[in-house]
Amino acid sequence: MTNLSLKRTNDGSYTIFNDALKETYHSIHGARQEALHVFIENGLFKMPISPVRILEIGLGTGLNALLTCRNKRERLIDYVGLEPFPLSKELLKDFIEKNAEGQEEKDLWTQLMESDDVIQLENFSLTKVSLGIQDFTSIEPFDLIYFDAF
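-> structure tokens emitted (150 positions)
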């Protein structure tokens, strides 16, 4: 079994470290900083349309889903997250505890990640799919794809 642990990054946020691969899930310079720069500022904010359909290949910790939900502005977001190898509930809980900025964010993040297959919030829906990209098909096209091949 793969040994996963939390590792502090340069911006003070934490990432997941995969001991078998000697790889982190996020940049060692900052998990939150990386997600905001790559996926929110240069992805979501570049999309002038509403609704926006987003596909994330590798839902992982849910950080990108959380930040998308928090930065949706007035747009409708339909978010699909693929995750064939979900993190353990204990590791995910610890990750959220160490990375959430305040109780409100912690509650939202926990709600997103502890939900079953689909969660509907105001102007944001998250559909979790337990498949890898090679096994996934969709009838509807996506406007934006989040793919962080760590």
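The beta strands are 4-8, 14-18, 23-24, 52-57, 77-82, 118-121, 124-129, 144-147.
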